[in-house]
Amino acid sequence: MRIENLDTCAVRLVSTTKTEPSLIKEIVAELSDRINNGDISEEELIKYLNSDEGLMAYIARVSSPNQENTKHSGLLKYCINQSHWSVFQMCDMTLEIITSRGIAPQILRHSSFSFQEFSQRYAEVPSEGIIIYIPRRQDIKNRQNSINDLSEEDKLWFQQQQQEIWDKSFKTYKEAINRGIAKESARFILPLNTITRMYMKGSVRSWIHYINLRSSNGTQLEHQVIASKAKTIFVKQFPTISEALLWK
Ligand SMILES: Cc1cc2nc3c(=O)[nH]c(=O)nc-3n(C[C@H](O)[C@H](O)[C@H](O)COP(=O)(O)OP(=O)(O)OC[C@H]3O[C@@H](n4cnc5c(N)ncnc54)[C@H](O)[C@@H]3O)c2cc1C
Description:
This protein has helices at residues 21-30, 32-37, 42-50, 52-60, 73-81, 104-108, 152-178, 183-186, 204-214, 221-237, 239-244; strands at 10-16, 92-100, 114-117, 137-138, 146-147, 195-203. The chain is 46% helix and 13% strand. The protein folds into two domains: 10-14 and 92-244, Gyrase A, domain 2 (2-Layer Sandwich), CATH 3.30.1360.170; 18-89, no CATH class. A four-stranded antiparallel sheet has the order 1-2-6-3. A two-stranded antiparallel sheet has the order 4-5. The longest helix has 27 residues, at 152-178. The structure holds flavin-adenine dinucleotide.
């Protein structure tokens, strides 16, 4: 995956939860009388159990005598409105994220997720490994905010500085490696806008709260862009939940 043009990140879907096929077969066999009577549609039942949203509803109905009810949009909406969050911990989603070493620590703070990140200790950083960021002016009233009204001259100056510092630091990094300095030591010379790649796995519940928090004001713009790309993927994977959250 590459970062296109002036974009500052890339996000793509790696996986979501898959229902064990033998479980579906067993449930279908257990309900065969009702399927044969025409009470339950086998096709709908399989579709229900095979989708993440259906699976979460099936599990949520553990205490219900009606667990095989394939209609689930109302239930999921009810669970969201009632903050019955544990239902949404039954399925996971993993995303691949490309960002910089400056933004990655903010993402890694989300303690309910599991991560794997590219380690600069074992593999060399590539020469094209930076993101050139467009700067914003510091908001003097709200320190969590920055404003996009800098002059083109200041923006250009800052972008050129990033490139110059990268060229110098990357050259030094390569020289350090050629001198036999370990990658884990050599990397100390690299700036915060060095690219990193990570895998982020969390429950649907965690993604709901991460996306809500990180796509709103108070989060650094570059992180908001990551959260909004994650949201686009989430909406496609979990359409009913997204509708209940008013994300669609
Ligand atoms: C604007 C901003 C400024 C920050 N500044 C700093 C700073 O200066 N220094 C610093 O060290 N850290 C800072 N942080 C990081 C912050 O303190 C948290 O560490 C970070 O947001 C991760 O949140 P979390 O621990 O809730 O993890 P998560 O993994 O996101 O959430 C933990 C669990 O809580 C659940 N959850 C979260 N929200 C809800 C909800 N509304 N309802 C129900 N369940 C919920 C999730 O589903 C998950 O199961 C900042 C964060 C923000 C957004």
